[in-house]
Amino acid sequence: MNSTQPTPVQDRFGRRVAARLSSGAHELPYEVSERLRAVRMQAVAKRKRVSGLRTAATLSASGGAGVMSADEHVSLWGLVASILPLLALVAGLILIHTIQNERRASEVAEVDAALLTDDLPPAAYADPGFIQFLKQTGQE
Question: Which site among 51, 84, 92, 123 is 20 to 30 Å from 71 CA-CA?
Answer without folding.
Answer: 84
